[in-house]
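Quick one: structure tokens for this chain, please?
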Amino acid sequence: MPPLTIRNSSGFGRRGLLRDWLAEARSRFGTDPKTAFILSGGGVLGSVQVGMIRALTEAGISPDIITGCSVGAINGAAFAADPTSRGVDRLVRLWSNLADGKPDLMPRSRIPLIAQMSFKRASIHDPSKLQQMLLDELPVRTFSELKVPFACVATDAHEASAHWFDSGPLIPALMASAALPAIYPPVEIDGKLLYDGGVVNELPLQWALAQGATTLYILQVGHLDARPLEPEKPFDSLMHAYWTARVQRVEEDLAQISDECEVIRLPAGGSPRVRFDDWSRSRELLAASYEASREFLSTGEAADPIHGPTTSL
């Protein structure tokens, strides 16, 4: 049976389209329940997802499908390669190493960030360390080698639409999905110029729905609580506006499917103010999300986030 067509993400904001697509998926794939883990983008906050995955694994909840965006694509692919407690331990070790600066994916410069952004080059950072980390840490090289069906999303810069990967070489797809504009350069694949998937699709639901997912566990990081922002610098307001736009897209998509699927949004446990290139709090974030998610999966109740609104410079 041929797969469902993945439409451009710009169409998914239209009322009812996700519901129509879910109905089509069910008619094509049947009604057997499938569980999906949906991992958002979120940069240095990605260790939050590892705590969530650890809690899910300990609770005996395993995915039939995994989708990811940006850092969620990296975490999702790593877990899809080994969806066991051993795979969780691998992710914990990876993020613990990042907390210790091994590798230093975004080395600090003596030149102010604003000045760096004025340079005539595509990005502030060289992506080679990220690529080498993926080569060192991922036990597989292609989508077909993954133990759980997995897809990740990038942004087609020319078409202003989502570009999905679910086959072929894995690491180039992850590099494209995580190519945060200005931080890392875009990735060219098959003549397409690709940026971070979060630009157009922060929470990559569509591929999971197309495969017939009926239970969606949402592993979302980024702007983790609803408390108002008190800007300290102009960039704080810029980042808040950026996250607000992404959250609005997420809420619109979830509103289209919430009465058709079981949607479980895991709590992050906290939302600290963390500089976009500061990985040092990864262990703290992982521990907080693990405890909050473990309690939620056990009792159905989630505590309020601990503190802080978003990432910053």
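The radius of gyration is 18 Å.
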